[in-house]
Amino acid sequence: RTSIYKNNVIQRIINDILFKKKTNEGIKWAEYYNPFLQVGFALTLTAIKCSLDEWTTGKYKSIHFKEDEYKSLYKQHLKTLDYFDNQTKKQGILPKILQEVFDIGK
Question: Angle, to 10 degrees, between the axis of helix 38-53 and the axis of helix 93-105?
Answer without folding.
Answer: 80
